[in-house]
Amino acid sequence: MADDFVIEPLPTYLEIPAVKADAMRGAGPFKSNAEFQNPLGFPGEKVDNWQQVAIDKMGELKSKYRSVQVFLDACVKCGACTDKCHYFLGSSDPKNMPVARQDLFRSVYRRHFTFAGKYFPKLVGAKELDDEMLDDWYNYFHQCSQCRRCSVFCPYGIDTAEISMAAREVMDSVGVGQKYCNQILGKAITIGNNLGLPEPALRDTLLDLEEEIEEETGVAVKYPLDVKGAEILLITPSADFFAEPHIDGFIGYGKVFHQDGVSWTMSSYASEGANFGMFIGSYDVMRKAALRIRKAALDLEVSRVMVGECGHAWRVAYSFWNTLTGVGAGAVANDEFALKLQNQLDSRYPQPQHIIEYTHNLIQQGRIQFDKSANDERVVTFHDSCNVARASNMGGIPNGQFILPREVIKAVCNNYVDMQRESIMESTFCCGGGGGLLTDDLMEVRIKGAMPRMQALKAVEKSDAVNTLVAICAICKSQFSKVLPKFDFDPYMIVSAHQLVSEAIIMDKPQTDETEIKTEIETEIKTEIETEIETEINDKTDETVKID
Amino acid sequence: MYPVSIIFITLFYISLLIFLVGMTRKIVQYWQTPVPLKIPTAPAPLTRSGVVLRMLREVILFESLFKASKWTWLFGWLFHIGLALVLVRHLRYFWPGDLPEILLLTQPFKYAAFAFVIGLLGLLGRRIFVDRIRYISAPSDYLMLIILLIIGVSGVVMTFTDNHTDIIMVKEFASGLLIFDWVNLPTEVHFLVHIFLAFLILAIFPISKLLHVPGVFFSPTRNQVDDSRKKRHISAWALQQEQQNSVHLGEAIGTDGTLETAAEPQTKG
């Protein structure tokens, strides 16, 4: 991939490009090294007998995942998926067609695991896993955001995400990992969040935010941390603490909690909703990251676990947490591991619950009120984030994951329009930055992959003067902030759903609230203890100085 | 008995055996391979009956393919429905003795052969003329279509032109295969080609992309109920890992303490 590349002007209609072989050929994202590989249990560099290790790993994965085994066998090359990937539509590289991407993996599977591929490799397109193939794997499996759009259209439901996860796991097992994901995972499983933010820094950040909100609104919205016995444990992507526009949505969550008067907390031990373990396809690493949430829920004795606006985090939470950690319901009677937590959680609520489900519920019950005119300068559209749209549900009703966010948005603003039907809901186009691709060394892929979404956005900008794009995913928000200006949009048009909520919510709750008092006391105690410790340390330092 | 009859009888049993053994093995393999995670793709049914309906729409109407590409759907569906009807009509050849009433009603299904052939021609055309599909096609993908086309065309020739075969002989031969009462078969070339390629398809079924037939029923994105918050789904290997505490927090987080038990083995990965 060239460092300088041309960003084509957006087409009026999304056209299927003619294939341009090797258009996105390249070295792929920065590779990981021992420092980031070893903590995850992967070799630090490419192992000597890597081919054998890789083939063995493929065999293991296809025997552990029915998806991998069935998807490798079932494809008939009908071509239904060939025009469905945003990276292909944006780059024309045929290896970005879902089936061709899978075929990088499938051709090796055929060579080593099938009769036809062993004896008639040319006939069935079976190939050896050599250095060139591995380079293609590394490059093109990091041009897949695991958005699953192809899976919607495949007559057999073949999900390229499953294949790209498997391929990444095989590559990790031979010591060829991606730096971005693995470095972040190291921080997530040792410190508790992707930023590597330790407890004191997080606490400071939250205190600053509380001050800021109080100054601005006059309301003492609290951001409790490590409050034992709180009702709700909020697990949100750590980008919410700092990044723009995420933090404005984070302010929105706080205001909603405040207005509802519910007691809630975050955990400094599990201060991350994102779980990149899914991106690298490792069940074990994903589980390790998720187990911190289980531990936090048990330690803090909460009765509800809630998830902030984050796409893949919601997939992991909604679809996988119950499996990985027991955060959920419906464990069988002898399942001690899951029941230990499930007996503690309040079965009247879905576990885990999405913040959108929570806010939606409050709106339905009339427990929060809005001044919709606060968002009157906005004409809003909603970007369905792929993992929410295609791999989760909300509200327990069919298609709830499409309905609930839209209802929340419509409850807080007057001007809403949807983008073209074929670019939203289950057919939504990825922002271009999902699946572990949100790194500057993949900027060309990200910009080209954003094209189909940008095209659909341009259409509603023209027809309805849309000036606000709402997403409920931390990756989408970061990605859009970066790519919007490349397509002549205002980078600040991307906002959280809860930013709109935050702007419109009427904060009329009396200020003397039990939760606040409780939190205040907690903070006071903390401060006292900290002061004491500081004094002690100072005393000791003084002593040392004296001895010297 | 003619040698050619002996050859074809042998070929039939060999290909049938490969088909039955191969398919059983693949289906058992799919059945036994665990599904560690819930991965249904939207729009995912929330109930078991919803999944049954989804699967029926998928295998009868090709719902997802319809969403994806109308042309591929049209040709693909014509081909498959044509094949299904023609196969049902072929039962009359394998039915020993007089046909039951219901099989007599399948007489008009012979026209489905045209849907079969037109569908295949469409699919072959797409494979040749659409650059994306040409790119993803291996020689075997063309070969498969060509084999099926030859089967279809030779069948049409026998049914709708003057090149009829002795249909009584065909029936005696075919039904004889099932009741092990072997007789000579007609030896017109188009008939021999027709059944030879049909046997071939049977034999390559378990080692080719024809595995999409059992595969679709085992596809987790299509056959799972979207109820992950209500029911704990866990595979055998994951449960074993969980019970052995083989993935634990203690190792990575140092002094922060371990999750369930203090005295767990410190294993890598």
Please render the helix and strand layout as text.
The complex is a heterodimer of chains A (548) and B (269).
Chain A lengths: L33 H4 L12 H15 L1 H9 L11 H6 L6 H16 L1 H5 L1 H4 L6 H10 L8 H5 L6 H14 L5 H12 L8 H19 L14 E4 L3 H4 L3 H15 L3 E2 L17 H17 L4 E4 L3 H15 L10 H7 L10 E2 H10 L15 E3 L3 H6 L8 H13 L30 H22 L3 E4 L2 H10 L10 E3 H8 L9 H34 L1
Parallel strand pairs in A: 1-2, 1-3, 3-4, 5-6, 6-7
Helix pairs in contact in A: 2-3, 2-10, 5-10, 14-23, 15-16, 18-20, 20-23
Chain B lengths: L2 H30 L15 H14 L1 H6 L1 H25 L6 H4 L7 H18 L1 H6 L2 H22 L6 H13 L9 H16 L7 H7 L1 H4 L12 H8 L6 H4 L16
What does this entry show, briefly?
The complex is a heterodimer of chains A (548) and B (269). With 548 residues, chain A is mainly alpha-helical.
Protein model, in words:
- The complex is a heterodimer of chains A (548) and B (269).
- By secondary structure, chain A is mainly alpha-helical.
- Chain A has 3 domains: 34-177, Fumarate Reductase Iron-sulfur Protein, Chain B, domain 2 (Orthogonal Bundle); 185-504, no CATH class; 516-548.
- Chain A has 24 helices and 7 strands.
- Chain A has helices spanning 34-37, 50-64, 66-74, 86-91, 98-113, 115-119, 121-124, 131-140, 149-153, 160-173, 179-190, 199-217, 239-242, 246-260, 283-299, 311-325, 336-342, 355-364, 386-391, 400-412, 443-464, 474-483, 497-504, 514-547, and strands spanning 232-235, 264-265, 304-307, 353-354, 380-382, 468-471, 494-496.
- In chain A, the strands form 2 sheets. In chain A, strands 2-1-3-4 form a 4-stranded parallel β-sheet. A 3-stranded parallel β-sheet of chain A has the order 5-6-7, with helices on both faces.
- In chain A, strand 6 (468-471), helix 22 (474-483) and strand 7 (494-496) form a beta-alpha-beta unit.
- Chain A is globular and about 75 Å long.
- The longest helix of chain B has 30 residues, at 3-32.
- The radius of gyration of chain B is 25 Å and the shape is globular.
- Chain B has 14 helices and no strands.
- Chain B has helices spanning 3-32, 48-61, 63-68, 70-94, 101-104, 112-129, 131-136, 139-160, 167-179, 189-204, 212-218, 220-223, 236-243, 250-253.
- Chain B has one domain: Up-down Bundle (Fumarate Reductase Cytochrome B subunit), CATH 1.20.950.
- Chain B has 269 residues and is an all-alpha fold.
- At the A-B interface, helix 2, helix 3, helix 5, helix 7 and helix 9 of A face helix 1, helix 3, helix 6, helix 7 and helix 8 of B.
